[in-house]
Specification:
Number of domains: 1
CATH topology: Rossmann fold
Radius of gyration: 20 Å
Shape: globular
Number of helices: 8
Largest sheet: 8 strands, mixed
Strand order of the largest sheet: 1-11-12-10-9-2-3-4
CATH architecture: 3-Layer(aba) Sandwich
CATH class: Alpha Beta
Strand content: 15-25%
Distance between the termini: 55 Å
């Protein structure tokens, strides 16, 4: 969190984002790079009346979301589009996956850029692209307040350039950034922070990882209008999310130990 001290807290940003959008009550939430729409569904739980739109560029991911039929029940709109700083068509690189356990997630990763290291190969696909300001300006009624959740594999800067025409309606942004290149030619965190500052957004909180983490930006007017109470509310959330993060680490550690014990028992039986 940032304020008079200019300090940005490290915390579990997904928890903070959901708490803050519940408080801010945006008319529209855009889940950009939705993958499986799980985040969009979580937003519906805290915003029963908001318009929620999931954008997914990967043809395979979009088809899986559509086939699940879950979004109709949640009143979430799916758009098989890339979000960027241009309206038109973009070439996306869909990451190949291996058959190894834990590698299936790779097949759901796609980007306009090519991975620098660890790629198993990519398939190029042409995808329709749209700017967020173009999308918002086409809506009826036009939303007065907007929240953005962006997870776009090295394309965050381009997506945020595309909000220029509606930046005065965006109140909160949760975006993945990198401090070193994971994708060829990508913009880094410093570039994103500078862009957001030029649009009067403030870095409010960030995730724990150093090289790749999420940042929450708030419109400066949101902090000004909400005042000290908003900061105190966010600080309480910081405490809760820090505890939740620690609890998650403990759960993970216990799960690993249980798995190790079961493997040891299984190996002993096979001897």
């Amino acid at each position: 969190m940032t304020g008079a001290t200019g300090v940005v807290m490290k915390l579990y940003t997904d928890i903070l984002f959901r708490v803050l959008i519940k408080r801010l009550q945006p008319d529209l939430v855009c889940d950009v790079g939705s993958m499986n729409a799980s985040d969009a569904k979580r937003f519906r739980q805290v915003l029963p009346k908001a318009r929620i739109v999931a954008f997914e560029a990967s043809p395979a991911n979009a088809q899986l979301i559509e086939d699940s039929g879950d979004l109709d029940d949640c009143d979430i709109q799916l758009r098989h589009q890339a979000v960027s700083n241009v309206d038109g068509t973009l070439t996306f690189n869909v990451e190949h996956s291996s058959t190894e356990k834990g590698q299936q997630l790779r097949q759901s990763i796609c980007s306009t850029r090519k991975r620098i290291a660890g790629s198993l190969g990519m398939t190029e696909v042409e995808v329709e692209s749209i700017r967020l300001d173009t999308f918002v300006q086409q809506l009826t009624p036009t939303p007065a307040s907007i929240a953005l959740w962006i997870d776009a594999e090295g394309n965050s800067h381009e997506i945020l350039e595309g909000i220029e025409g509606v930046r005065d309606r965006v109140t909160i942004i949760h975006v993945e950034v990198e401090t070193r290149e994971f994708w060829h030619g990508q913009k880094l965190k410093a570039d994103v922070v500078d862009l957001m500052a030029s649009m009067d957004f403030v870095s409010f909180a960030r995730g724990y990882n150093e090289f790749q983490h999420n940042v929450i930006f708030l419109a400066a007017r949101t902090l000004t209008s909400s005042g000290v109470n908003f900061r105190l509310h966010a600080f309480r959330v910081f405490i809760v999310s820090a505890v939740a993060y620690r609890f998650e680490l403990i759960k993970r550690e216990i799960k690993q130990k249980v798995h190790a014990i079961r493997s040891a028992v299984r190996n002993k039986r096979l001897r």
